[in-house]
Request: fold
Amino acid sequence: MAEAAAPKKLTIFDLQAKVDRGEKIFQVTAVDYPTAQLVDRSGIDCILIGDSLGMTALGYSGTVPVTMDEMIHHAKAISRAAKRSLLVGDLPLGAYHASTADAINNAMRMLKEGGTDVVKLEGGEDFAPIAEAVVKSGVPVMAHIGLTPQLVSKLGGFKVQGKSAETGVQLLKDALAMEEAGCFAIVLEAIPDRVAQVITDKLTIPTIGIGAGPHCDGQNLVLHDMVGLFDRFTPKFVKRYANCWDVIGKALADFQEDVHKGQFPLAEHSFTMKEDEYQAFMQKVAKG
Ligand code: KIV
Reply:
């Protein structure tokens, strides 16, 4: 029997084509093999291997401690699962800040070792030269401005950005600088919807919002947030589509109750031995 054809792998050009057709881009942050399989098979365009995995998968209080090696470890698992979605590998804090050489080396590592298709990096105007160098080295870059969690200390907390006229204009400058640097798309995180709308109108590359209102070209959510698999906090911009925390919690409680009551395992979960083998076995046991 002929094998089913492998799904067509999406490219950065497919994203732009979707926007040109007036369609939205879907991006979801996944952290491991099974979550990436679910996302890939659901038809989501881009899987982001985001450094938010520091919180959702590794138990850190933020993204600051996440290392390049940790990102690559997760990217490898995700790239084994994803057959169709474009894979976006986040460069963590410290991976691109000291020099363009660091940025290029770590972007190359993300592609070569992690198996991603492109990289993402946080930062606006100040990081445009770094982004440009990475793009010129041949690695497509998704930019990320607004609330940039790696710089949470500088921002004074996980706060909405661009709420004043002045900071809104700065965000527009940041976005234009990253487009000019050659980035193929840009994430807008936690910014007012009308600022995101203006940025989306002024840019030619797709904008992907997370907490940036409905006018962006696409939307990003973190899988653990949207399916309720993270118990610490849920940002205002998240819509929860399932409550996996409670589903898994109930399964764990039911398992304990079943074992306690002798209702698990039953015959259907057990392995049997033929009667004659069993009799011979018991004779041998009796003889010692
Ligand atoms: O790490 C992540 O999941 C992200 C998204 C919030 C855009 O950067």
User: Anything to note?
Assistant: The beta strands are 25-29, 46-49, 86-90, 118-122, 141-146, 185-189, 207-210, 218-222. The chain has two domains: 12-242, 248-287. The first strand starts at residue 25 and ends at 29. The chain has twelve helices and eight strands.
